[in-house]
Amino acid sequence: MERQAGELFEEFQELTASEFFRKNKQMLGFSGKIRSLTIVFHELITNSFDAAEEAGILPEIKIDLKRLDKDHYILRHTDNGPGIPEDFVTKVFCTMFAGSKFRNIQSRGQQGLGCSGCVLLSQMTTGKPARIISGYKDKDGLKGVQMTLKMDVKKNQGLILDKKKVDVKNTGVCLELHFKDVSYSLSEQGAFEYIRRTMIANPHAKIIFRDPTGHKYIFNRASAVIPPLPKEVLPHPKGVTADDLIFMAKHTDKRRFRSLLTSSLSRMSTKRVNEIQEITGIDLNKRPKDMKWEEAEQIVDLFTKMDFMAPPTSGLIPIGQEQIEKGVVEILNPEFVSAVSRKPVTYRGGVAFIIEAGIAYGGDSGRMVGEQRKAEIMRFANRVPLTFDQGSCAITEGLKSIDWKRYGIRDMESAPITIFVNIVSTQVPYLSTGKQSVAPEPEILHEVRQTAMTVARKLQKYLRAKKAEKEEAMRSKIFEEYVPVILKEAALLAETEVPEYQPVLAKVTRRALAELMGEPIDDD
Fold first, then answer.
1. Confidence bin at 516 (pLDDT 50/70/90)
2. What stretches of 42-187 adopt beta strand conformation (E)?
3. What angle do CA 142, 147, 149 make, to 5 degrees?
4. What does the alpha-carbon distance between residue 251 and residue 355 come to, in Å, rounded to a whole number?
5. Phi, psi of 168 (to 5 degrees)
6. What pLDDT, on the 0 to 100 scale, is given for residue 112?
7. What is the pLDDT of residue 101?
8. Which has more pLDDT, 7 or 126?
């Protein structure tokens, strides 16, 4: 029986962001028991780091994970950040796509889904409310508020079940959530490994973690330097679309389109605007709201043909060679470590990024597989560990395309090596909303290769010196073993006494070793 259009649309619905992600939680990264818990750790830790650094505070986080039953946990997460004012608590924890990260700025989080996504997962798996204590300062001094709340999925907002003022000693947020259908694991994708890798890329932080067995891990900071705050950068002409220009035009307070271009795009001078007007014939003195789609397309097409200075890179803050090495030494205690940060470049013509890499050899480098250490790749984006979807990531692809035998590593898979790679950008090109792998842009692949090969050459030099030292030690040992035998046999043939050879032999072998190590030689 044929149905009328009116009947077909009787079930037409509108979903809020919360309803959508309730039905599609895998898009937030919540798929699988181990991965779901790791993503919770990821979201809460990155939010705490960002908040503390913006307030000029060295981050310190305490995490307590208690197991109540099989796959049922209580997570208590406490930080020392600036706290959340009372009026914003429900927005932070119960509203999807709400936050301060919707800017063209380098940031660990980029979507405003983190904390609210964790509350949603908790509510979906246990039905339990979230409990939050926030200590914050306002014009009247230090204040504290405790709330018990749930997310109203239909309205994409919070429902306060209980609220009261509390005394707090410091600023910061304490969040308590229940979770079911999650699992704590010591595997490479587990929550513990996520913390360990986080500390390598964030040596200025301190994390105290108590696991479900009651074991307490203290990850101390290796540096007291708070990273400089990144600056917001304007979009580059090479990276905008016609839709971007139309959107800017509809939401600007500028009276003329030429003013919009110079104030909203980087590297856009008045001289450039005049060139655009002359070539296109478009009157750029018109009101921005009068700009037509065809005209926006014409302007963007011209952008692709014009030469612009590279985008400004003042908004990009890499970890830096010294800080990477400090983080690696603190966690891996390697025999050898080297790191490097490349100069900024761009992908897709107008998005600036930096690749930095480190390599660690020996000590606790690599990953334990049975009783053997294997090579380990640690991927990061804006200091955040990417622990899942490794195979589809540009970082993995770039590293595996390198011929490691050229750098003295015969069997890369079985070498006690950790390779660290971090991409820094205001717009990391993630492959999905789960933000766990980087798109294989040609420029990114090239930079990953070049940066990794730079640190690989330094490791090669170290391994050669180590091999030479070992060979010299073996030669010295042979010298020490056979010279006495030769002297005794020679003395026997000459029918004379064996000369005193020990002082001379010790001096010769000592000289050889001293020359190898570059130490001064005492001939007395």
1. very low
2. 60-69, 72-79, 130-138, 141-152, 157-165, 172-180
3. 150
4. 34
5. -130, 150
6. 46
7. 46
8. 126
pLDDT of residue 479: 65
- C-alpha span between 222 and 50 (Å, rounded): 18
CB 197 within 8 A of CB 378: yes
Q: What is the mean pLDDT of residues 130-149?
A: 93
Residue 102 has pLDDT above 60, yes or no: no
Q: Please give the mean pLDDT across all residues of the chain.
A: 84
Cα pseudo-dihedral 212, 158, 144, 75, rounded to 10: 0
Q: Which amino acid is at 349?
A: G
Phi (first) and psi of residue 282, to 5 degrees: -85, 135
Q: Which of 335-339, 372-376, 444-448, 518-522 has the lowest mean pLDDT?
A: 518-522
Cα gap 385→438, rounded to integer Å = 12
Question: What's the mean pLDDT in 316-324?
Answer: 92
Measure the CA–CA gap between 442 and 446, rounded to whole angstroms.
6
pTM of the model: 0.78
Position with higher pLDDT, 118 vs 134: 134
Nearest CA-CA partner of 60 in 227, 229, 220, 223: 220
Cα–Cα dist 300/266, whole Å: 14
Provide DSSP, 315-380.
T-----HHHHHHHHHHHH--SEEEEEEPPPEEETTTEEEEEEEEEEESTT-SEEETTEEE-EEEEE
Residues in the chain: 524
Tell me if 385 sits within 8 A of 355, measured CB to CB.
no
Does 276 or 493 have the greater pLDDT score? 276
Ordered by where they begin, the domains of the chain are 17-219 (3.30.565.10), 237-305 (1.10.8.50), 321-462 (3.30.230.10), 467-517 (no CATH)
Q: Report how far residue 353's alpha carbon sits from residue 347's, in angstroms, rounded to the nearest whole number.
A: 8
Per DSSP, 311 falls in state P
Condensed to tens digits (0 to 9), the pLDDT of residues 43-80 reads 899 989 999 999 999 999 999 999 998 889 999 999 99
CA distance 489 to 492: 5
C-alpha angle 359-321-44 in degrees, rounded to nearest 5 = 85
Cβ burial of 411 (10 Å; 0-12, 13-18, 19+) is exposed
Separation of alpha carbons 331 and 378, rounded Å: 13
Closest CA to 128 of 180, 65, 82, 189: 180
Whether residue 189 contacts residue 387, with contact meaning beta carbons closer than 8 Å, is answered with yes
Q: Report d(CA 191, CA 40) in Å as an integer.
A: 9
Q: Are 389 and 436 in contact (CB under 8 A)?
A: yes
